Structures are given as C-alpha cells and as structure tokens.
Amino acid sequence: MKRSFLTLLLACFCILAGAQEADGTYFFAQRDTCNLFMDVYNPSRQSERTFQGKAKPTILFVFGGGFIMGRRSDPYYLPWFRHLNQNGYRVITIDYRLGLKGLRMRFDLFHLIESAELTKKAVDIGVEDVFAAVRYIADNAETLEVDMDNIVIAGSSAGAMISLSSEWEVCNGSERTAVLPEGFRFAGVMSFAGAIMSTSGVPAYATEPCPQLLIHGTADGAVAYNKLSFGKRGMFGSAFLTDNVLKKNGYVFHMYRFRDHTHDMAGHMMATWPLQKEFLEQDVILGNRMTVDATIDDPNVPKLESVDLSDIYK
Questions:
Q1: What are 198-207's pLDDT values in tens digits?
Q2: 226: closest CA among 200, 181, 195?
Q3: What are the sequence ranges of the domains in the chain?
Q4: Which long-range CB contacts under 8 A does 107-114 form with residues at least 24 apart?
Q5: Which range, of 7-11, 213-217, 228-232, 252-256, averages the lowest pLDDT?
Q6: Predicted TM-score of the model (pTM)
Q7: CA of 174: how far to CAs of 103, 127, 131, in Å?
Q8: Which CATH number does 5-312 carry?
Q9: pLDDT digits over 166-179, tens only?
Q10: 171 in helix, strand or coil?
C-alpha cells in the first residue's frame, strides 16, 4: 500500500530533532473561513547574518499538502527551519486557505478542465494570502526586523506552486498585487517541486523575475516536471519553465533535475541545502547572475515511493 503524501514528506527528513517553538506568532488576515497566522523563527544568536558584508534574506515559507492539508510549521519542516536559523536566516512561515479541501478532484478525460480550474483557483487564493502576509510584514517590518527589499519566497509542492505564481503575478502587476507595498519585489524564489497553473497559455513575465531556484524530480507524478496542458490551460512545471521561459529570456535561475526522483523532492530541503546555499549566496545576496542547469543522480538523496494525483485526492 502506498504511503500518504504527508508520510512521504515526513520520511524525507529521516530524523526529527524534537519540537521547536517559534519566536513569535502573529495574526495577519481574517478570511470568511479562517484566521491566518504566521510564525517567525529568528536567526540563532551566534549565527553569521551577513555574507561578504551583505545581509542574508528573510525566507518566507509556504507549506505543501496538495491544497487540502498541511500546517505552517509542521514538524517535518522544523529541522530545515533550524538549519536556516543556524546559518543566519530568519524564517517566516504562513497560513493560507486550503482551496481544494473537501472538494472532489477527478482526473479522467471528462473532468480534467474542471480539476484544472479548481486547482488554479486554489493557487489564486493562496497567492492572495501570501500578499496579505507580505503587507503585514511591511506594516510591521521594524518590529519583525525584516528588510522588505530582501525577502525570498520559498515553497514545497502546493506551496511551491503558490510561490512561483506569486512572483509571476508581481512581475505582471496583477490586481492581487494592489495590496503590496509600492515597488515591492521578491529577492528570490525557492521552489521545491513547483509549477505555474495558467489559463492563458505559456507563462510570460512583463518584467524580469527575481532569481529562481527550481528543484524537481524528473519522474514527479503529482506536480508536473514538464507540463500538463490542454488548450491554453495547463500546469507548467520546472523543466518547462526553465527550457521555454527562463533560458530563452536570459533570466537568472538554478535548475536541479533529480533523475528518477518523484514528488519526494518536495520534501528534501535538508539534502539539498548545499544547492540552496549556493543560490542564496551567489544570486540573491551577491547578485552575481549565476545560472545553473544540472541533472543530478545522487545516491545520498533517498528515492521514496512514487505518489501521484490519485494518491493525494482519494
């Protein structure tokens, strides 16, 4: 029997080093269905908060769970949060509304368009909640000790889809960006098995996006590694975005294609830390416009049992 989606992610971390409490929890938005909160994990006291004299960014993290489950500070993320703190990074994790919770998702030929539209709506409300969190952080930047010009958005699975779409909307000035501080831009995006849902064809950027780190398994059966499309509707994954959008336009990206890995790369934050570190230091902090496109077959990164859409939306 296949393990559940969350169990797969939990297994990615192998060892959990006990509970970790946030340094602060803050209410940032009220919705019809729920109240939204964020947790703040500050850098460790003895950590180095600069690199070559430049401040390290705040990491704004959006959790995964197929838009049906998950929490902002689920235990399996805590070792990674702790590691970021020990390396001088502040982490802010946020709630967002679970737009597919309680809905029936079907992926046969007759229901693909319906399921795609439901997923796009779930991404859209997630982006709206991300922007509400950014607005709250901006209004309380001094208290939270956050530089609004130095925020990297990161996400896992559904959270990666929201993160990539948040940057896409910022670059294109969508209506949802009206809540953001004037001129706000993310300093970087880190996507662990993410994609962009579009109903208008291949995603395009009106202005150059910030540097993007994309980590994806080549055999991912949950979030498309390449693309799933029908007409102008589609899920455009890391490989498609890299090969058809980022490269062609000379945008800055680090693309890591984990050969034969499935959706497990949504949870391999600790195993891929050296790749994150290089991206954060070289392109986000130093602004070197370093570009990477690598296929990785690393036996030290365990391959977990495959999970596909039917496993998630039973």
A1: 999 999 999 9
A2: 195
A3: 5-312
A4: 107/309, 107/310, 107/313, 112/230, 113/230, 113/233
A5: 7-11
A6: 0.92
A7: 27, 11, 11
A8: 3.40.50.1820
A9: 999 999 999 999 99
A10: helix
